[in-house]
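Have a close read of this protein, sequence plus structure tokens, and explain what the tokens say about the fold. Thanks in advance:
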Amino acid sequence: MFILYPDKTLKKKSKTNKAFNSSLYEIIKIMIKKIINVSDYIAISAVQIGYLLRIFIVKYFFKKAFFIFINPKILWRSSLYFFSYEGCISIPKFYTYILRNKYIIVETYCNKKFYYKFYLKNLISYVFQHEYDHLNGKLIKV
């Protein structure tokens, strides 16, 4: 179902998505289907299902609505930090504390022409940073 640690795919850097086409939206549908019924986790990156693309999805308040991030970037990180207690779909039953920026400003595309900038804080900030790490081939420390 998900690529699991220690698979080397998880350590690879994802590529910027250049094609906003039906293939991209099929991958997003697959990601949603895989995360929708997983109650313990709230996000998934494309690399966790075998696609080295800069895409991740976050459940909206643990419901069946989603934020979809395509080619996301962190534009700014606050100098305030917080220890976030995190788990990972790719490392089942493992949880640890990770030092994260409390606030971040990000940009992400919704299609080839339009992008959004967000100011994120607290839980959504930590989740974004966790998934963003996946896109850069980083995992929480095991």
About this structure: The beta strands are 43-45, 55-59, 66-77, 81-88, 91-101, 103-109, 115-121. The chain has one domain: 8-135.
